Amino acid sequence: MSIPPHALDLLRPLHPPETTFTRSRDLISPSTSGQQYLYKEAARPATQLVGEAESLRRMNEACREVAPRLLGSGEGEDGKRWMLSEWHDLSSIPASDTRLADFVARMHLAPAPPGQRFGFPVPTCCGATEQDNTEEESWATFFGERRIGDLVRRIGDPELSRLAGEVQRRVIPHLLGKLDVRPSLLHGDLWSGNARFSQGRQTPITFDPSSYYGHSEADLGIMRMFGGFSEAWFRRYHELVPKTKPVEEYEQRLQLYKCYHHLNHTLMFGGSYRSGAVGLLRGLLRWADERGL
């Protein structure tokens, strides 16, 4: 397969002058290095590709170790959108390796751009779901409307709508409305399948982001949903990013953040994920009942 000139313009300065490049489907290989590159292209509007490229660009700026390097993105002469990034050979992260906690913490602690609110400049896709990243001044408003509210409207399930509506009215204002948090850059889909060990870097790495700016703990919800991250990982992370006050409501916040991903999987796949979402929403409402909220 031919390699577009705009990709070669980005690759040639990274390698010796005698280097030749070959392409096999989406992978580009230089003759003088073992580092391969991933070239993606898609017809407009290419929402997922554009969102992934912007996510990687900002993650690279926040912490260069946390994700593959984005070399460039744009629109080709044929009108298709494209992106070029590093490709990594991947394996399982050793159980004792908690370095990814350092990288994620560094990403979360990186200052957001001036004037950045909760949300993101472009839509991003969590799985197949295009997320509503319309920016909001309030984290409680963003998460309640742009995450929970948006998904239950799209799912169209009466019971989920009723339960989620109660959580929006009674739980979210209490759990999130009083938090003193700033917009942190999130991976957005940080389950264990999107975190592996890079053979080239010899460090853990994340990929397939669906970023937005939100409360740092929101990234931890899906990590608890599917598992794969040790208690040592969480201890190391919270050494660097302490649990948000009030600490005694930390577990309830993670249940709420996990609920978003159960709702997203309900939208994409249905089945048992709906039961999980119902259970989490009911649990949050029981917690609110116990506190007279």
What can be said about this structure in brief?
With 293 residues, the chain is α+β, with helices and mostly antiparallel strands. The protein is built from 9 helices and 12 strands.
Describe the fold and architecture.
This protein is of the alpha+beta class. The protein is 43% helix and 16% strand. It is built from nine helices and twelve strands. It has helices at residues 5-11, 47-62, 99-109, 139-155, 158-175, 218-226, 231-240, 250-269, 272-290, and strands at residues 21-24, 27-30, 36-42, 70-75, 81-87, 90-91, 125-126, 129-130, 184-186, 195-198, 203-206, 212-214. The chain has a five-stranded antiparallel beta sheet with strand order 1-2-3-5-4, sandwiched between helices. Strand 2 and strand 3 (36-42) form a beta hairpin. Helix 5 packs across helix 9 (272-290) and helix 6 (218-226) crosses helix 8 (250-269). The longest helix has 20 residues, at 250-269. The termini are far apart. The model has no long low-confidence stretch (mean pLDDT 97).
